[in-house]
Structure formats: C-alpha cells, structure tokens
What we know:
By secondary structure, the chain is an alpha+beta fold. It has helices at 14-27, 67-75, 78-83; strands at residues 2-6, 33-37, 52-56, 59-64. 5% of the residues are buried. InterPro entries: FeS-cluster_ATPase_SufC, P-loop_NTPase.
Amino acid sequence: AFAIMDETDSGLDIDALKMVGDVVNALRGPERGFLIITHYQRLLHYIKPDRVHVLAGGRIVKSGAAGLAAELEKSGYEQFIEAA
C-alpha cells in the first residue's frame, strides 16, 4: 500500500500534527509507504523521513537524507529554484 499526503499539515494545530505523526509512524513499514508533500518542517518533528526531495519547475532538483529538510528550513528554497 502507498499513501500520498499532500500538505496534510496545512491548518493543523500542534496537537493534530502530533496525532498525524503518530498515525503515520504506526502504519509505516516494509509493506506500506508514504509520500508526504509539505512546505514546512514542522510535520517532520514527528515523522522522520527516509528521503527528502525538492521539487522545482516540475522536477526533482535535489534529493537527500532527512537533514536536507533542516537545510531548507535554514536557507530557503531559492538556491534550488535557481537550479531548476
């Protein structure tokens, strides 16, 4: 099974974010995957991604480990948009 979660964190308060994180962490495993689309790192305080991908101009312009999300939070998307 594979779930796509597109901006699930939009409009959620901190308690709801934690609840979403708890559910995803309980369900994830070798037989179940998630594609989580977000613009913010706050959901990632509860879900540790296996991989992070940056999309710009309709394509993946950067991929990396979970630390890439922290880099984006610190530096922003501009460097990746220019690369697109």
